Amino acid sequence: MRSLIDDLLTLGRTGDSVSELEPVDLANLTANCWKNVDTAGASLTTEIDRQVLADQNLLQQLFENLIRNAIDHGSPDVTVEIGELDGGFYIEDDGPGIADKEQDAIFELGYSTAENGIGLGLSIVKQVTHAHGWDIHVTDSSLGGARFEITGAEFAHK
């Protein structure tokens, strides 16, 4: 229920663009998001040590939704990896992946393959990325599951 309320609040807050950007440490954010999601026997690998200019609350919701999605659609011992891309970052897992024919549909409001899913999580992920002026693309991961690539992000200088 808490996740549903958080998703609905994020959906209501996410406008066409984000105006307040701050440096957000992706390693710290990832660790905090991991604590906020029921990760059961899942494992996390963080391969990025950068700060991205973002709205921290919205970015947290994005990460939590993608982590939750990996766990809900993978096995209880799924591995999630967060890493750096040229101009962005990725979140991938070693779960079952997403069929090519579904890769566009997964971001539609109300789309879900889960028995008790309501289809808000990935729609919010897409809205958050677009509100930041970023792009999101889903593909197969190097781990064999799904990989969400977020590009167009601006990293803060260290």
Describe this structure in words.
The protein has a five-stranded mixed β-sheet, covered by helices on one side. Helices cover 33% and strands 24% of the residues. The chain has a single domain, classed as Histidine kinase-like ATPase, C-terminal domain (Heat Shock Protein 90, 2-Layer Sandwich). The mean pLDDT is 86. The protein has 158 residues and is α+β, with helices and mostly antiparallel strands. The radius of gyration is 14 Å and the shape is globular. 37% of the residues are buried. A hairpin with a 2-residue loop joins strand 4 (79-85) and strand 5.
Distinctive features:
4 helices; globular; 5-stranded mixed β-sheet; two-stranded antiparallel sheet; single chain; Heat Shock Protein 90; about 160 residues; about 25% strand; alpha+beta
Explain the layout of strands and helices:
Layout: H1 2-13, E1 22-25, H2 26-36, E2 43-47, E3 51-54, H3 56-73, E4 79-85, E5 88-93, H4 121-131, E6 135-140, E7 146-151
Parallel strand pairs: 2-4
Antiparallel strand pairs: 1-3, 4-5, 5-7, 6-7
Helix pairs in contact: 2-3, 3-4
What is shown here, in short?
The protein has helices at 2-13, 26-36, 56-73, 121-131; strands spanning 22-25, 43-47, 51-54, 79-85, 88-93, 135-140, 146-151. With 158 residues, the chain is α+β, with helices and mostly antiparallel strands. Strand 4 and strand 5 (88-93) form a beta hairpin.
